[in-house]
Amino acid sequence: MPIAAPRNLEAKWYTNTAIFDAERRTIFSNSWLFCTNLLRLKESKSLELDVSGHHLTLTINEDQEGHEKVSAVCGDGCSLTLSITSQLFVFVNFCDKPTPFSEFFKGLEAELSSADFNPSEWRYDSEFFTAAKINWKSYMDNYAECSLSGSKDGLGTAEGLWVQLYPNAAISIYSDAISCMIVDPRSATTSKLQFQVFFRSTASEATRTAFYSALHAVVDEDLELSEGAQRNYELGIWATGALHPVRENGVIHFQSRVRDDVGLA
Q: According to the UniProt record, what class of enzyme is this (predicted)?
């Protein structure tokens, strides 16, 4: 008997407040959430962040032997565990007993190490935010669907390393630029998109201008697609269907993990 093809999530997953609340309790309270790169603290040594509804303060201090130590404080007194990769990417977990980082993101360190990225040769440039009338999964679905198209981050055939970080983030490393994306869930039907941009220290102003132009163009395009899908969910004209096991493998993996974590069929 042939195995049934995986099917995409039903519309209720993108509109239902009870499901959204369940995701907050299960996914976002137990996952390792990407925050930033420590390059952002190179000058100020301190950074304020909002992560999944929690206000965090990241700080770099020196111990008695002159070694730098990174600490994180949660403004509302929440439980917090910090993990930093060898490439200085920062993740937090709000669970009292989190899954070990190396288990949650199997192979991530090796994958990031394969990129041409030595933090000492890079600098933080800026961040920007976009309000979106979408469920957070709408944007992550779109990112996962583009993962095999050769146009991740909308930068055409530019060579680089693209890593989707479950549940709500992605890192794209190019020869002279890095973009980090975070989709911050605000309600069942609204989100805030955050983009952090870094450049190689030797990158020219022309490179910087061209990268921002391309990045903003693809964010606008992806947001238009995601908001169009969201309108269909809310109007009730979305029908679940079979997902292609190869061309939509990224979507299958992402949505299957969401289902498993929340515990709903």
A: oxidoreductase
